[in-house]
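Give me structure tokens for this 85-residue protein.
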Amino acid sequence: MVKNNPRSPIPKIRIEKRAGKIVTVIAGLHTYGAARLDAIAKELKTTLGAGGTVKNGTIEIQGDKAEPIKTWFVRIADRSKDSNE
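Here you go.
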């Protein structure tokens, strides 16, 4: 049986409106480091077909992508559980 690490960071996903455009911001993962955040952002941008960037320890994805991002994180968590069993 695999137990989730209670110290693992939990992504906080929110929608912001900037200059009339919608941006999905993923915060709370700053402990991962810049290289890992860049890799997550790249995979999300490819998966969602959207632009985005990493700024100040947060990932910003263009558009209202909160639900697909939540689904992506759940799928990644399930994938890591399967590889640990």
